[in-house]
Design brief:
2 copies of one chain form a homodimer. Chain A is α+β, with helices and mostly antiparallel strands. The first copy, chain A, has 13 helices and 18 strands. Helices cover about 30% and strands about 25% of the residues of chain A.
């Protein structure tokens, strides 16, 4: 697995070979016997525990190094973990020593060494270097040094910033959350139905749609939600979900907004608003539990997350009505009036009273989307809920029971001035065997930000897209 | 879980209640005692086996019905399966009998009945009707009748066509394939990294990009691949993948093309072209095995797939070089010349010799993308592979080792006339610790079409987008 077609140098005998000066700057350059190279097993850093006392090869990048002048410590990362590789000048000889001292941050290399358990070492294991192959040199110009950089600089170098341990940890938590979501739904009989991104005309709010020309068919829009399509699929398959990228051409510059983000949207036939909240709290409890179980080291050691704030996230979650929320906010001096939507600060205030996410239910009709079902107990409101995360992370879920009455839905579409012809197929779902159904949308980045304790959601996606950024 | 705010009718006593004529046409209308309704457990059709001898309620839609004049057979579907519910005129009484006879296709209903095992019944179980709630009536105008419709008509009614058993089966296989892919990769330490859809300038081939205005930053393009971003992520995390929608503004009207489709793209650090093919064949073998294990009824009973054609799909898969493929095709009378790309017919011819997918390796440079690594054994070619499915389903995977040499990559970018400044970050990956790496793209719809034995890939996605279609 050496890049082919590039000259390699092997010593004929002895553990460390003399370096051929002309080879410097070319790669790969191998220090160590060819026998050693072919005999040692290549392993991932996360698997070192199983190889104590053996000679193995690790492939990765140089994250950091220090040298006492006689002993060099290389910190090597491979995506699965970090290991310290140690070589003393006396053992490795002058030539390899010169290379060890000259290695630049992010050089790629294959290090062969014997594995020792060492509690003081990062990750708990250490490699005693017996050979090293410099695969891809780096340069002193490597942009991201081990110091503070401004966020614009880091975002401009996101393709390299991703290699930082903190970013690696966030990506691993995001992966675990994603897999936990899919496992949870699969095990409960939900069918993943991928809904389209290119859509004819429908979304949550016009004016925040990205547009593209679609052959001879006119303008297409990038979907803001898959929900309406999910509703059609729920009539076919019962319980479904979509989970993909979602687009909002919003001019929002807050720590909770991206123009492209991932959203999970389950939709359930024969499920009312209460059933909907039960699924939401079970799912969120499961996600947090999986992250605590399988990403504890990333959360605690790398992200320094106070996991005691996540431990209580177990269903049932408290439920308060919108009416109660408004009363509570007014009692605390807020100027909110019945009918207003809740702002981020309002949400934070409500969340402060609870050690786990809190449902706020049944908002005024005017504050919510046209497809939500009228609340029979108070027709000024709809059967919906937001789920507010603790610690000021805000809304992570919005859910509702859907209007299943043809006439009421049609008049809501007309009230909102939406293009009726584009909703013909959506109305069909109420003409032919309408059924009670509910669903919700969970914002992946906001959920990951909360679990990781990350302030701004731009760090929770590999290549964030914001008002000012589309590169790299 | 009844739609709230709608009048229900319950009889005071007796099993079947008299119908109140004014209620006809409103819903839900319940036939049966309220006690029965609250006592019977609501179950999914797929769970009926566990309830033989019990009275249960099933919620779903009327797929079909027939009546002898004295016995009515309702075929009810709920997304998890299909069950026959049987009621005789003598047992159910005239009023319910009238309703049973008047039910339209796709009416939504809750049927209560006792579960009997019956080998002759579809699914193996039958319900003897004791009560029925008509939740949402349908109409004799229901567009999709149990007869042949033209494909344009069906696509225009895709939101309803999805309810047909064949479409439900395909969606369930797609879901299983998707989950199998994610399980396979998760268990092998791959990290899911979602790559952006909105991108600055890069893709496989200009001229087939959808464009959108991006605030003050000019034009953004919808991504044709996540691979280049994956390569950055692989240097951070080792083994990664993206799996999301992909866009091609191609004017192709073939059974293998959509303008929006889902693609899985793994990318692996320290993996060469041979390693890449080993991962591909293991993955494809695993996917097919999972579908055979968990979707056998859908494949055999509904889709009538000849699964004996899938059983041999076990690694290793045969490998032939592009050179060998051209010789073979020429020997069979093809006019192909060395340097030409293979067409769909060529692929089918090659695949005919094998009972499992076949790799075609190391194509001419000119036929493939700029980022593929030059083959050191024959620099006219690159280290790549296509994977061709049997039975004429064509290419399901394209993979390659990536060019890891800065200078060679830069000259390829210049040769192709690509905008160099847009690839600055991509070239950085070769400046700072370059590393051997490989990856591939698997087309989800083509894979599902092959496994299901479906002729046209438009049936393998819920809402297909083609040159002529963006509705519903």
């Amino acid at each position: 697995m050496t890049p082919s077609g590039v000259v390699s140098t092997f010593g004929a005998r002895g553990r460390i070979v003399a370096i051929v000066p002309a080879m410097l700057g070319r790669f790969p350059v191998w220090f160590g016997t060819p026998e050693l190279r072919s005999m040692s097993e290549t392993v991932y850093i996360s698997d070192l525990a199983a190889h104590v006392g053996e000679e193995v090869t690790v492939q990765g990048w140089l994250y950091n190094k220090r040298s006492s002048g006689k002993i060099a410590f290389l910190i090597v990362r491979d995506g699965t973990g970090i290991v310290q590789a140690v070589g003393s000048k006396g053992d490795v000889g002058d030539d390899l020593w010169g290379i060890l001292e000259g290695l630049e941050y992010e050089a790629s290399l294959r290090v062969t060494g014997s594995v020792r358990a060492d509690e003081r070492a990062p990750g708990g294991y250490e490699l005693s270097i017996v050979g090293l192959e410099l695969v891809g040199p780096s340069s002193e110009d490597y942009p991201i040094q081990l110091k503070e950089h401004g966020v614009d600089f880091l975002l401009e170098h996101r393709h390299l910033w991703l290699r930082a341990p903190r970013q690696v940890a966030i990506m691993r938590v995001r992966d675990e959350v994603t897999k936990a979501i899919r496992d949870f739904l699969y095990e409960r009989g939900f069918v993943n139905v991928d809904t389209p991104i290119l859509t004819g005309a429908i979304g949550e709010s016009a004016g925040t749609l990205f547009e593209t020309e679609y052959f001879d068919l006119g303008t297409a829009y990038l979907a803001q939600t898959g929900q309406l399509y999910n509703e059609a699929a729920a009539a076919a398959l019962g319980r479904v979900y979509c989970f993909g990228p979602t687009f909002r051409a919003e001019k929002s510059k807050t720590r909770r907004h991206l123009t492209e983000f991932w959203m999970l949207e389950p939709e359930m036939a024969w499920c009312d608003s209460e059933c909907n909240m039960e699924v939401q709290e079970s799912l969120v409890g499961y996600i947090v539990g999986r992250a605590l179980e399988r990403c504890r080291a990333d959360l605690v050691d790398v992200l320094e997350r106070d996991v005691s704030r996540l431990e209580p996230v177990v269903p049932p979650f408290p439920r308060i009505s919108y009416d109660q929320a408004v009363e509570k906010l007014q009692a605390r001096g807020s100027s909110i009036e019945w009918g207003d939507d809740l702002g981020a600060e309002d949400e934070t205030l409500i969340a402060e009273d609870h050690d786990r996410p809190v449902f706020i239910c049944n908002y005024p009709k005017g504050a919510k989307a046209f497809y939500m079902k009228e609340n029979p107990d108070d027709p000024r409101t709809v059967l919906c809920n937001d789920l507010i995360a603790p610690e000021g992370y805000g809304e992570i879920i919005g859910g509702s029971q859907r209007e299943d009455d043809y006439d009421r839905l049609l008049s809501r579409i007309r009230e909102e001035g939406l293009p009726e012809e584009a909703y013909g197929w959506y109305l069909d779902l109420r003409r032919f065997g309408t059924f009670p159904h509910s669903g919700f949308g969970l914002g992946l980045e906001r959920t990951v930000a909360w679990i990781c304790g990350v302030h701004h959601i731009r760090e929770t996606i590999a290549f964030p897209r914001t008002l000012n950024r589309i590169y790299p």
